[in-house]
């Protein structure tokens, strides 16, 4: 039994095995919280776990496999779950219960496993919540491409499917038919050209909220929050949600919890998908905008529908390229840009305040950044001191002696002049 969730870490199920339920969706049923999510081992594609307390998750079933039973329905769909002899990719599965048909209906994102060009949604159904789902095929909703997605069921039973479309540029909203098995109508194309993905929708006091992210592959980016009085009506513009990397997470679901709402997210590991972690944080709303604060641990009390959060103070940071892709790394001698990896300690930096500036200290080796871009012993020499200049949400790191600007641009480290357009980074707490 665990008594809390360590945010950002992979989770173990009640048998001590890693939980693979990435891009998860949740459903309350039979007095349990059910969690459905991605698993990519062998022919497994969607796994289901259940919990009474949101912290201890019991594995129930691989509810969708490449080999699952396939059955067409009234719409023309593609029933293949293999491509070029290999299993396809299934992402972000979400399940709703349809009162009308007494069926559990799963919607998900389908790709052929080789590239991201199919951009289809797919459906599966089952008579029981955690039984073997029957695959009902993939398709392009009203001919659109569809990638990151979610489902939302309103109080009157009307269900909506949200999916990034037009090559991720617009967030499409589809009202579903009353059996949840097809699209009734496309009702919105939200925030055209703003490239939002990872939608998660919930309703509080009659108002709808959508959390989403920017599009940067597996790298975390600035989350966003928007709201509307009607799903099919006018949505607000997007406000920042969380820090520049949403505390190293990407939304997957918002779970109502008594009077509270829990933000549930993936911490995708860009170099080790199976090591991806989970994040559960309370959402607060102020003037129509959702917020989260980081907490290292969270514990739930399901009886009283309350939670407690705990945090450890950390002075560890990562220095990220403006484009979210590269991170400053060092081996103690040189500096270079590396892809994000949560296991890579060489990406962690501390800032030591000195008279006249800061040492930029590489935590793993204890060496500090010097004005020529190499690593040296920590000292008060002006060539070892840096100042930080904030430019909106980004930072320029400027050497006190030479005035050179140090930065990470994509996968490159740059040491330039004050007017160099590449010298912008974001400094993000380790979390
Ligand atoms: C980010 C998405 O949110 C994930 O579901 C996945 O599709 C990755 N992109 C793939 O790069």
Report on the architecture of this protein:
Strands 2-3-4-5 form a four-stranded antiparallel β-sheet, with no helix packed on it. Strands 8-9-10-11 form a four-stranded antiparallel β-sheet, with no helix packed on it. The chain contains no helices and 38 strands. Helices cover 0% and strands 50% of the residues. A hairpin with a 4-residue loop joins strand 28 (326-330) and strand 29. The two termini are 24 Å apart. The site of (2R,3S,4R,5S)-2-(hydroxymethyl)piperidine-3,4,5-triol (DGJ) has 9 residues, from strand 8 and strand 16.
Topology diagram in text:
Layout: E1 5-6, E2 22-29, E3 32-38, E4 44-51, E5 58-65, E6 82-83, E7 86-87, E8 89-98, E9 103-111, E10 120-126, E11 134-139, E12 149-153, E13 159-165, E14 170-176, E15 183-190, E16 197-204, E17 207-213, E18 223-228, E19 239-241, E20 250-257, E21 260-267, E22 277-282, E23 284-286, E24 289-291, E25 297-301, E26 306-310, E27 317-321, E28 326-330, E29 335-339, E30 349-354, E31 357-362, E32 368-369, E33 375-376, E34 386-391, E35 394-399, E36 405-409, E37 412-416, E38 425-429
Antiparallel strand pairs: 1-25, 2-3, 3-4, 4-5, 6-7, 8-9, 9-10, 10-11, 12-13, 13-14, 14-15, 16-17, 17-18, 18-19, 20-21, 21-22, 23-24, 25-26, 27-38, 28-29, 30-31, 32-33, 34-35, 35-36, 36-37
Bound molecules: (2R,3S,4R,5S)-2-(hydroxymethyl)piperidine-3,4,5-triol.
Residues 23, 91-92, 148, 197-198, 217-218, 250 line the site of (2R,3S,4R,5S)-2-(hydroxymethyl)piperidine-3,4,5-triol.
Summarize the structure.
The chain is an all-beta fold.
Low-confidence stretches: none
Average pLDDT reading: 96
The CATH homologous superfamily of the largest domain is called Glycosyl hydrolase domain, family 43
CATH architecture descriptor name of the largest domain: 5 Propeller
Bound compounds, each kind once, are: (2R,3S,4R,5S)-2-(hydroxymethyl)piperidine-3,4,5-triol
CATH topology of the largest domain: Tachylectin-2, Chain A
